[in-house]
């Protein structure tokens, strides 16, 4: 009997135990692979999230908060900066391009971002929209691909925004906290009416950009002022995205604005690196869970082969008496362990990529993480090598035990 047929017969003889072992490896590999693709998505999203804008200028506060809100549309802004401040930035000689941004209102859970339409050319180049064209006047919007897909939007549709954060900041500055508390109910009613009266019309839908901009609605900068009735001279913006001529000129701009009260200039790459490092530290707990899953799979393979060795002791002894060598018996045991691991590894790859495919929209909608289910990385090879090594190590223990026992002892057992 050939070794391959002998191994296959033994695996089919223990159908349930073999299936359980394969499923254990499948679940572990699929879980590890999904985590790997998610981590790659986080790193790629962090790198592509801010494009050519090496600097961002906003109200004093947390640098991380400013960058996350400006480029990733996450969380609340740090505040607003005055019209004089952002005009001074746009006129500075160190600037190649600068785009003031207003945020604070939402359409459903998606932020409405006010920014000049030239932003898209600067960041993404001359990419055609999926439908329609860019906005030209107040009240016109373009929507990200994910927003359009999620809400079923088309060119020509109209909607109203919802109360956000910008107006709350204006109220606090103009009236003070005590005065705001006394008139909170009245202001909420007025703001609600203002939002209901101001309608947006979709003029275009962006292509899939694979950046956080897929999850946003874009319109003119002055939309926030129009909705909230802010007059000239009192206008503010949430942030200014800056593409400096050079990194050195960016430092010149930062030095020039250091003295501005309530204004901060942030290096985007540094703030993003801080966030990624924080995510990496937080992922250590997930890595511990992953390690436990790997150990569980290894134990499952070990127990399966130990049980197989116990069942086949007499068969192994008979084969030895018929002339098969110790190496044959040992190789068959190791081969079974590697076969179970390889089957589980293959199914795990399929399960991991299938899970990424079906979960990518939900993960992107919830956390803004882009998962590419068709991406092949170096982690695939590392996972395969690790799984086979673990399967080999788990197989060696019962195989070596069978190898050391003499043929007559095996047969009498």
Automatic annotation (TrEMBL):
Functional summary from the UniProt entry: Part of the ABC transporter complex hrt involved in hemin import. Responsible for the translocation of the substrate across the membrane.
Main location: membrane
Localization in the cell: Cell membrane
Keywords: Cell membrane, Membrane, Transmembrane, Transmembrane helix
ABC3 transporter permease C-terminal domain boundaries: 288-405
Similarity comment: Belongs to the ABC-4 integral membrane protein family. HrtB subfamily.
Domain of life: Bacteria
The protein, known as: Putative hemin transport system permease protein HrtB
Membrane-protein topology: Multi-pass membrane protein
Organism in which the protein naturally occurs: Paenibacillus faecis
An example Gene Ontology CC term for this record: plasma membrane
């Amino acid at each position: 009997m050939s070794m391959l047929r002998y191994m296959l017969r033994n695996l089919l003889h223990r159908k349930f135990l073999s299936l359980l072992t394969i499923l254990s490896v499948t679940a572990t590999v699929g879980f590890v692979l999904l985590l790997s693709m998610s981590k790659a998505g986080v790193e790629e999203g962090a790198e592509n999230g801010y494009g050519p804008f090496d600097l961002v200028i906003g109200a004093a506060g947390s640098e991380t908060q400013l960058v996350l809100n400006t480029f990733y549309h996450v969380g609340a802004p740090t505040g607003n900066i005055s019209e004089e401040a952002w005009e001074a930035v746009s006129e500075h000689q160190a600037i190649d391009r600068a785009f003031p941004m207003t945020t604070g209102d939402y359409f459903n859970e998606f932020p409405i971002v006010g920014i000049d339409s030239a932003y898209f050319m600067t960041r993404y180049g001359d990419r055609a929209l999926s439908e329609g064209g860019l906005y030209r006047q107040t009240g016109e919007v373009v929507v990200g691909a994910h927003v359009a897909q999620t809400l079923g939007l088309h060119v020509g549709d109209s909607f109203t925004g919802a109360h956000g954060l910008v107006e709350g900041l204006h109220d606090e500055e103009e009236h003070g906290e005590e005065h705001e508390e006394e008139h909170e109910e009245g202001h909420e009613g007025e703001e609600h009416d203002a939002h209901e009266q101001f309608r947006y019309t979709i003029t275009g839908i962006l292509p899939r950009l694979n950046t956080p901009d897929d999850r946003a609605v874009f319109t003119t900068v002055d939309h926030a002022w129009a909705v909230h009735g802010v007059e000239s001279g009192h206008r503010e913006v949430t942030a200014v995205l800056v593409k400096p001529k050079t990194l050195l000129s960016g430092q010149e701009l930062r030095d020039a604005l250091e003295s501005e009260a309530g204004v901060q200039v942030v290096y985007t790459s540094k703030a993003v690196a801080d966030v990624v490092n924080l995510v990496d530290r937080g992922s250590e707990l997930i890595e511990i869970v992953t390690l436990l899953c790997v150990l569980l799979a290894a134990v499952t393979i070990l127990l399966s082969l130990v049980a197989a060795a116990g069942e086949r002791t007499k068969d192994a002894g008979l084969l030895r008496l018929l002339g098969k060598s110790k190496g044959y018996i040992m190789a068959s045991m190791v081969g079974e362990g590697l076969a179970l691991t390889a089957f589980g590894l293959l199914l795990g790859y399929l399960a991991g990529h299938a899970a990424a495919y079906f979960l990518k929209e939900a993960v992107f909608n919830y956390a803004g993480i882009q998962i590419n289910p068709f991406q092949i990385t170096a982690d695939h090879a590392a996972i395969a090598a690790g799984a086979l090594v673990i399967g080999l190590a788990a197989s060696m223990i019962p195989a070596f035990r069978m190898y050391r026992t003499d043929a007559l002892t095996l047969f009498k057992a």
